[in-house]
């Protein structure tokens, strides 16, 4: 066993961990970045990123072997031969589904920053005040004014493309130039604006892509192969953005294959002293010491690390004194909306594969309106012309079919709602010591479901989409609800919520564990509520803010 | 001289006339067809190539056979199909030859392009009707499988994707609204 000492340890190298490492190292702290999985090196390890469709043996499809090996991943789009190595080996790392839970994990350097959806939206005060106003869960201990400068800080570095719209509840940010709406989207946006008298907006998605000058990065090339890793570094990932910045300081040590099994805690000082690491390749146990620890292992795995730590002091783990650790698990429910045909654009087309779509910000339960549910949803979608892969009922086989499919088909437009899930105490993750992973470690049992509020919301998510498309002049509008499995949004949040009171929350307003002030948890687990926008930008902002706090506390000798 | 003319010349040199796709499969010259995987032999691949070519024929651009769609089907059915779907598919190939025997007293390979098209057009009508029945969802019609694999195999191949459709690996920009002229190819 070796003892190694750093100023700071970051657990997890995804979006939050990458940011923590960058900010800590840039502030001069010798930082150890621990990642449980393998290294994926920028560009070099993006094995399929520059392959044409015909260079993949099954053209990107899924084999029976893959389906057998990935019983969870197969439940949605993610299972593909294109980037299979970016997803966790489910046999090695099982978990228990007390209720169905679709947990899509990436265990490697960069985590899910390599495969994320890249949609990036600020929260507003409407969102930070929501719990207090509705009298549910606990109040956020933070308001927009406090976090706004940190949104700016991370946006300027990550590179967020978007349009300034002046929408109060979807605040503008520090944007690189917006991507363009196509002809159909532009007209539908204008119709929605006039039909709903400026109460509803359809805007271009705000997305973590480089669309203008950004030091050290290249512009998005409109290949739309983002989830294979981008050899141009066109979108934000740990590899393209935060990791090179952290490495450049000379203060970073990156250690892949390092499973953090527990945070070491000293009863006398009431602080963490370091972490215990299990080397995933050698099975050796190693201890690392540091003054401050950033836990960024992703919502569920951060809860796991805490639950597995300091159990001699608190049976439920470090940070469990409130009884909220592992609870209030959230996601975004989606996969319901509408689509239809846009007629009269047969002489219009586009060039390039835009890795982005439209966004319709939340409009329900605002401006005095009250539905039979609280909170709301936003829509993502887009318009496009059909490609070769379409059904032409009236054509059979032969030359006519070949010629028809060689030309673009009709224009269609579709949208799916992304809705808020309330923080229910009983939606939770617990340790199951009867089931062990490849390394003999206990696994998580996940027990969460959507309830009446979400089910009622889903009706509006479909009906409002239908109505908007119809009022915008779209033909053959069809609603659809493809069903939702908890976790499928890949936006797990809330297992270590922040609050104002150590009796009802795991973290304080600076993301510090109430029970161990030199442990900061800054991934999705700190979320006190979920809102309906994609959450990663908010993790980035809170992470940068938390590092700033930690370093200033260290200077004051408070940690 | 295009590819077809080149083959015709070869046929003349060999002192024969081209009958269907016989020349391509050279079925008559082989003692035992070689297995390409545990489900298909080289004769099957030849048959699938000709079925695919009937669905997506050569015109002034290459057809499905030039994109090696038969070999693609053999791989996809072996790796991606469930055993019960593999069974439907392989039985379907046999059915096609049986139908050719019944209707024309000939193997499918020995039929001319027009007879092939007549036969498969009828099968396409059959599969469309069959596919509309909800209860048939779990057991798709074999001709639907053949048609889908043909379209996928052809349009995502290098031949189909670049000589019939357009493929740009690195577009470099997004032009959101540009004119489209009827006849211009779709982007892969």
From TrEMBL, chain A:
| Pfam families tied to this protein | GMC_oxred_C, GMC_oxred_N
**UniProt domain Glucose-methanol-choline oxidoreductase N-terminal: residue ranges:** 91-332
Q: InterPro entries of this UniProt entry?
A: FAD/NAD-bd_sf (IPR036188), GMC_OxRdtase_N (IPR000172), GMC_OxRtase_C (IPR007867), P2Ox-like (IPR051473)
Q: Which UniProt keywords apply?
A: FAD, Flavoprotein, Oxidoreductase
Superkingdom to which the source organism belongs:
Bacteria
Molecular-function annotations in GO: flavin adenine dinucleotide binding; oxidoreductase activity, acting on CH-OH group of donors
- Positions of the Glucose-methanol-choline oxidoreductase C-terminal domain: 431-542
Question: So which cofactors does this thing need?
Answer: FAD
- Family from the record: Belongs to the GMC oxidoreductase family.
**Which protein is depicted?**
GMC family oxidoreductase
- Could you tell me which species this protein originates from? Pedobacter cryophilus
The lineage, from the top, is: Bacteria, Pseudomonadati, Bacteroidota, Sphingobacteriia, Sphingobacteriales
TrEMBL record, chain B:
Put simply, this protein is called: Gluconate 2-dehydrogenase subunit 3 family protein
Q: Which organism is it from?
A: Pedobacter cryophilus
Query: What InterPro entries would the database entry show?
Result: Gluconate_2DH_su3
Top-level lineage group: Bacteria
Q: Which Pfam families match?
A: Gluconate_2-dh3
Source taxonomy: Bacteria, Pseudomonadati, Bacteroidota, Sphingobacteriia, Sphingobacteriales
Q: Which PROSITE patterns match?
A: PROKAR_LIPOPROTEIN (PS51257)
């Amino acid at each position: 066993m070796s003892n190694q000492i750093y100023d700071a340890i970051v657990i997890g190298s995804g979006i939050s961990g990458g940011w923590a490492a960058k900010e800590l190292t840039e502030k001069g702290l010798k930082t150890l970045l621990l990642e449980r999985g393998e290294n994926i090196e920028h560009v070099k390890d993006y094995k399929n990123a520059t392959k044409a469709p015909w260079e993949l043996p099954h053209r990107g499809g899924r084999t029976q072997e893959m389906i057998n090996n990935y019983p969870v991943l197969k439940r949605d789009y993610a299972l593909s031969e294109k980037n299979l190595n970016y997803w966790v080996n489910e046999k090695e790392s099982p978990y228990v589904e007390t209720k169905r839970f679709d947990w899509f994990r990436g265990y490697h350097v960069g985590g899910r920053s390599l495969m994320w959806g890249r949609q990036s939206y600020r929260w507003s005060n409407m969102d930070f005040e929501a719990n207090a106003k509705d009298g549910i869960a606990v109040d956020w201990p933070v308001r927009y004014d406090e976090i706004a400068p940190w949104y700016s800080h991370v946006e300027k570095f990550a590179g967020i493309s978007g349009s300034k719209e002046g929408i109060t509840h979807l605040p503008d940010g520090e944007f690189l130039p917006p991507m363009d709406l196509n002809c159909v989207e532009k007209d539908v946006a204008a119709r929605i604006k006039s039909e709903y008298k400026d109460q509803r907006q359809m805007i271009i998605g705000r997305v973590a892509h480089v669309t203008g000058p950004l030091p050290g990065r290249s512009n998005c090339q409109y290949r739309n192969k983002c989830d294979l890793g981008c050899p141009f570094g066109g979108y934000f990932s740990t590899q393209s953005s935060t990791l090179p910045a952290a490495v450049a300081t000379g203060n970073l040590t990156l250690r892949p294959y390092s499973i953090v099994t527990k945070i070491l805690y000293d009863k006398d000082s009431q602080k963490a002293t370091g972490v215990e690491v299990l080397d995933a390749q050698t099975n050796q146990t190693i201890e690392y010491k540091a003054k401050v620890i950033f836990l960024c292992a992703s919502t569920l795995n951060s809860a796991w690390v805490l639950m597995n730590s300091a159990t001699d002091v608190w049976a439920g783990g470090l940070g469990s004194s409130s009884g909220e650790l592992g609870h209030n698990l959230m996601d975004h429910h989606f996969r319901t909306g509408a689509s239809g045909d846009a007629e009269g654009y047969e002489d219009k087309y586009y060039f390039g594969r835009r890795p982005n779509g439209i966004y319709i910000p939340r409009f329900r339960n605002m401006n005095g309106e009250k539905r039979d549910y609280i909170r709301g949803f936003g829509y993502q979608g887009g318009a496009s012309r059909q490609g070769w892969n379409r059904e032409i009922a009236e054509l059979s086989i032969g030359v006519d079919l070949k010629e028809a499919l060689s030309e673009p088909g009709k224009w269609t437009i579709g949208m799916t709602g992304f809705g808020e899930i309330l923080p229910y105490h009983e939606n939770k993750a617990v340790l199951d010591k009867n089931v062990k992973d490849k390394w003999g470690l206990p696994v998580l049992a996940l027990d969460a479901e959507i309830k009446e509020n979400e089910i009622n919301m889903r009706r509006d998510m479909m009906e409002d989409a239908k109505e908007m498309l119809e009022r915008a002049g779209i033909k053959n509008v069809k609603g659809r609800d493809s069903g939702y499995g908890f976790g499928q949004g890949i936006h797990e949040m809330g297992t270590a919520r922040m609050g104002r009171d150590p009796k009802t929350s795991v973290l304080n307003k600076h993301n510090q564990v109430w029970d161990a002030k030199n442990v900061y948890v800054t991934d999705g687990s700190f979320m006190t509520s979920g809102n309906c926008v994609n959450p990663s930008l908010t993790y980035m902002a809170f992470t940068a803010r938390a590092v700033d706090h930690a370093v200033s506390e260290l200077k004051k000798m408070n940690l | 001289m295009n590819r077809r003319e080149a083959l015709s010349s070869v046929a003349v040199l060999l002192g024969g006339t081209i009958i269907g796709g016989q020349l391509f499969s050279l079925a008559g010259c082989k003692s035992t067809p070689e297995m390409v995987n545990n489900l298909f032999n080289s004769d099957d691949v030849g048959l699938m190539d000709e079925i695919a070519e009937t669905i997506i024929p050569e015109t002034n651009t290459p057809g499905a056979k030039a994109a090696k769609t038969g070999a693609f089907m053999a791989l996809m059915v072996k790796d991606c199909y469930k055993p019960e779907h593999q069974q439907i598919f392989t039985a379907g190939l046999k059915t096609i030859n049986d139908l050719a025997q019944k209707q024309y007293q000939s193997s499918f390979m020995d039929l001319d392009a027009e007879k092939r098209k007549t036969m498969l057009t009828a099968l396409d009508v059959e599969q469309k009707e069959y596919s509309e029945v909800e209860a048939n969802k779990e057991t798709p019609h074999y001709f639907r499988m053949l048609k889908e694999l043909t379209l996928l195999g052809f349009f995502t191949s290098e031949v189909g994707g670049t000589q019939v459709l357009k493929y740009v690996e690195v577009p470099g920009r997004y032009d959101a609204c540009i004119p489209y002229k009827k006849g211009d190819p779709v982007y892969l």
